[in-house]
Specification:
The structure holds 2 protein chains of 2 kinds. Chain A is built from 2 helices and 6 strands. By secondary structure, chain A is of the alpha+beta class. A 3-stranded mixed β-sheet of chain A has the order 2-1-6, with helices on one face. Chain A has a 3-stranded antiparallel β-sheet with strand order 4-3-5, with no helix packed on it. In chain B, β7, α8 and β8 (193-196) form a beta-alpha-beta unit. The chains are: A alpha+beta, B alpha/beta. β6 of chain A pairs antiparallel with β1 of chain B, so a sheet runs across the interface.
């Protein structure tokens, strides 16, 4: 349950960017979350609801784009989406993999007024 | 009013990462090795740290930063060994962040220390997400937790420099397959050093002590 701290950082970053652009209100925050980032959207929304009160982001919508996990096999370089509890390469069975995508956690853009 | 789109493309935890870099710079300035110890609750972090203090306290100036949601139980245990301990109570948060570590470092006499050990909040998920500025990440996994954890918490195992498999003294009562575990960890993280230990009986701890000693030596050398 680290969504509380993540939302605090997200809010600070969003408000900072919006104020720099002299926006008066944030309408939507477009967030990109990797499957392996371990972030629950409902929990983000829950924290955002009360942490954003009294800021220019109050009432803003959170729009989430999910990035699926992608692993690359260290032996045959095959890139694949892992099955839930099996991280082995489906092509050659190798257990050695590196994470190519799925760790993302960033604000892509803001929609402001 | 018309809606404008502002491109941001910035990491949400970027501010924490930046703070972590300043923590690293601070400990480097004082030639201190900073290590971050992470595990599930009850895996044996405090026992490991106490064994480590007892082994090194005559030759190394150590301090411990204890992270817990509440209580000072762990800091009290460490203090009894005559070691400076800072207790951070996260008041509900499941991890330590770089800012908390900065405050704790600021309360320590850094010019009189060689090693600072951070005992993170017991958690395999959130702690892996928040950089603290540590030189090395040490992860503890205890035998009763099972050998399938690398598949369930891949990020933690990807991040660790050392993985200590604790509680080998109770291994006969569990079906922990060390070979399968090692294969899973090295699959995700080929550079991770895996060491089976028992923080209770002391079995295997020499390997951990040698690793830590070598890291402290390397850190001092790098400082010169």
């Amino acid at each position: 349950m680290h969504e509380g701290s993540i939302v605090e950082s997200l809010l600070a970053l969003a408000v900072e960017n919006a104020e720099r652009a002299q926006a008066s209100r944030i309408v939507t925050i477009n967030v990109v979350i990797g499957e392996l980032a371990g972030v629950v959207e409902e929990a983000m929304e829950f924290y955002f609801g009360f942490l954003s009160k009294g800021t220019i982001a109050a009432g803003a919508g959170l729009s989430f784009k999910r990035v699926p996990a992608q692993l690359r096999c260290r032996r045959c370089s095959n890139v694949f989406a892992p099955a839930s509890a099996d991280l082995r390469c489906p092509a050659c069975g190798e257990a050695g993999v590196e994470i190519v995508a799925g760790r993302e956690l960033y604000i892509d853009s803001l929609e402001v007024e | 009013m018309t809606v404008k789109i502002l491109t941001v493309k910035e990491d949400i935890l970027g501010a924490n990462d930046e703070k972590a870099r300043t923590n690293r710079a601070l400990v480097d300035q004082h030639h201190i090795l900073l290590i971050n110890v992470m595990s599930s609750p009850g895996a044996g972090k405090t026992s490991l740290i106490m064994q480590t203090i007892n082994r090194f306290k005559s030759t190394t100036r150590i301090a411990v930063i204890e992270g817990d949601i509440a209580s000072t139980i762990d800091a009290d245990k460490v203090s009894q060994l005559g070691i400076p301990a800072v207790q951070i109570n996260t008041a509900g948060a499941c991890h330590l962040d770089a800012n908390m570590i900065r405050k704790a470092l600021d309360s320590l006499a850094l010019d009189q220390l060689d090693l600072v050990v951070i005992e993170n909040v017991g958690n395999l998920i959130c702690t892996a997400e928040f950089a603290l500025g540590a030189h090395k990440k040490v992860m503890l996994l205890s035998v009763p937790e099972g050998d399938d954890k690398p598949y369930k918490y891949p990020l933690m195992f990807t991040e660790a420099d050392v993985v200590l498999v604790n509680k080998t003294d109770v291994a006969p009562y569990f079906d922990f397959n060390l070979a399968a575990f090692t294969k899973a960890v090295t699959g995700l993280n080929p550079k991770a050093k895996i060491m089976p230990i028992s923080a209770k009986t002391g079995e295997g701890l020499e390997a951990w002590f040698s690793w830590l000693e070598a890291e402290m030596k390397a850190n001092r050398k790098g400082a010169k």
